[in-house]
Amino acid sequence: MSPKDKAGDTPRAEYGSGSGPGAAPVTTDVPARLDRLPWSRWHWMVVIGLGTVWILDGLEVTVVGNIAGRLSERGSGLPISSAQVTGIAAALYVAGACLGALFFGRLTDLFGRKKLFLITLAVYLAATALTAVSFSSWWFFLFRFLTGFGIGGEYAAINSAVDELIPSAYRGRVDLVINGSFWLGAIGGSLLSIVMLDTDIFPMNVGWRLTFALGVVLGLVILLVRRHVPESPRWLFIHGRGDEADELVASIEKQISDEKGEPLPEPEGEITIHPRKSIGFLEIARTVFSRYRRRAILGLALFIGQAFLYNAVTFGFGAILTSFYDVSTSSTGYFFAVMAAGNFLGPLLLGKLFDTVGRRIMISGTYLLSGVLLFATAWLFSAGQLTATTLTACWCVVLFFASAGASSAYLTVSEVFPMETRAMAIAFFYAVGTAAGGISGPLVFAELTESGVTADTALAFCIGAALMSLAGLTAAFLAVHAERRSLEDIASPLSTTPKESKGSEEPKGSEEPKGSEEPKAQEPA
Fold it and tell me: Theoretical Cys-Cys bridge with 427: which of 74, 101, 403, 411, CB 3.0 to 4.6 Å?
């Protein structure tokens, strides 16, 4: 019999030593112990420490879009045009994010989630601080690229860590809200830019710099909280550090048991693995594109669709309002704040349905509905039926659904591939999908939305709507029923023993999870 854990009277696995092809197999119940935990203060610490960085991302990305007009004005302290800010700088930011995701994604799988989510935040904050002191266009472009490089690594490290630490009953809604919190930062950035662009308060060449500096200060606070977020126990036992994983989970169980004042429910299920230090690129590629090729197609469709829809709307947002509706550059922040609110409310209000109604219905539904609504918006815009206020209202409704769908893209690629490839899979699909929509998107849409021709802007909307709708149709056929299921049940780790491995064929993702009742765990507040 295994020894008992005092906190939850839970059997603890016995571990051998070493890792690699010749390592002794290890049987562990760590995943089951993590998944059966009730929601607690410890989980809130994980969410705050890891998820709140998206607020900073939304803050500085939105500020850049809103200050594009100001940066191009004489006296801003930076010789740059508005088109360069929304075109070249935006494309460089996304290019950096794609490369950063791939670079740090590989390191995250090799060296652990915690090391990398500390390093990537440090890179992101340093680059943002140096953006604030830009004195030339080349300097601004360089550090926009490096800021993106850091944030790309954040997507890989954080999404993998969050999904491995959050119980399966809440994984969908938590992941969606965390990714959707980008838009809380966008609201703050919009309103902050109104103050910072007011030359009665700050000189023209100072306000936009202080905005970036404020983001750095907030980021340092997040870094202090993040230091207390532990390594993923799942990553530890896969890499031959089973005793550390067991001790870590035992300490978490004790904290939660003490908080709840009652014993924890018994975990159900074990997994046997051969610990190994790393997985080669060839095996990762074979796993993702051969064994899980249907899921790979799904991931690409979701990322490309959401990237083009968002680029169609957001990269030309200020230019559309100022060109077609004579909205002053100092007032565009109010409109963007309303649109950003719709973006955040989508994941917040719809997130629970991804865990209860199910992934396939909700992913396909949000993608298709947002695509159809954007087509309708394009028609009304081209017919001259919209004002600045009603156009913003249309965007707000479209993005209410699109934001939930876009957040589910990150959720999908982080939970439907094996543990050993998780961060790299997130990095790859983010990089490819975002490169397709996020590099070409700004370059294409900047030309269309700044032309001043109604038909060109309507075409930009239609491109985004068409790709979003196509992704929704793909999800209707290929989305995996991952709700309320253990990550190891959705995709067996590559390190499982031959008996437990599900073979080389792609699992049938359309199968319903065992049991139809929603787990009776405590709801997060």
Answer: 101
Ranges under pLDDT 50 in the chain? 1-17, 22, 498-505, 507-525
**SS3 state at 272:** strand
The Cα–Cα gap between 520 and 319 comes to: 49
Q: Which H or E element spans position 1?
A: none
Choose among 82, 283, 373, 143: nearest CA to 365. 373
For 517, residues 6+ apart whose C-beta sits below 8 A from its C-beta are none
Q: In this predicted structure, what is the pLDDT of residue 400? A: 96
What's the CA gap between 66 and 333, in Å, rounded? 7
Which amino acid is located at 236 in the chain?
L
Which DSSP string do the residues of 73-108 spell out, in sequence order?
A: STTSSS---HHIIIIIIHHHHHHHHHHHHHHHHHHH
Task: For residue range 422-456, list pLDDT tens digits in order.
Answer: 888 888 888 887 777 666 766 677 666 666 688 88
Distance of CA 232 to the CA centre of its chain: 18
| SS3 annotation, 130-164 | HHHCCCCHHHHHHHHHHHHHHHHHHHHHHHHHHHH
Question: What is the per-residue pLDDT for 330?
Answer: 67
CA distance 209 to 214: 9
CA distance 496 to 342: 43
CA distances from residue 460 to 125, 209, 210, 375 in whole angstroms, order as listed: 33, 31, 33, 10
Q: How far apart are CA 75 and CA 83, in angstroms?
A: 17
Nearest 5°: phi and psi at 302?
-65, -45
Instruction: Identify the residue whose tokens are 């249907």.
Output: 294
Taking the C-alpha atoms of residue 312 and residue 377, their distance in angstroms, rounded to an integer, is 12
**How big is the CA angle at 188 (ends 71 and 462), to the nearest 5 degrees?**
75
User: Cα–Cα distance between 62 and 211 in angstroms, integer?
Assistant: 11
3-state helix, strand, coil in the chain (%, to 5): 70, 0, 30
What spatial distance separates the first Cα and last Cα of the chain, rounded to whole Å? 38
Helices 422-434 and 90-111: crossing angle in degrees, nearest 10, is 170
Give the model's pLDDT for residue 449. 66
Give the C-alpha separation, 226 to 214, whole Å: 19
Q: Among 348, 79, 110, which residue's Cα sits nearest to residue 239? A: 110
> What is the Cα–Cα distance from 250 to 257, expressed in whole angstroms?
10
CB 72 within 8 Å of CB 252: no
Question: In this structure, are strands 271-273 and 26-28 parallel, antiparallel, or unpaired?
Answer: antiparallel
What's the token pair of residue 134?
């830009």
- Helices 359-382, 388-415: inter-axial angle, 10-degree rounding: 150
Question: 90-111 and 440-450 are packed helices; what angle lies between their axes, rounded to 10 degrees?
Answer: 160
Tell whether pTM > 0.90. Answer: no
User: Are the C-beta atoms of residues 470 and 433 closer than 8 Å to each other?
Assistant: no
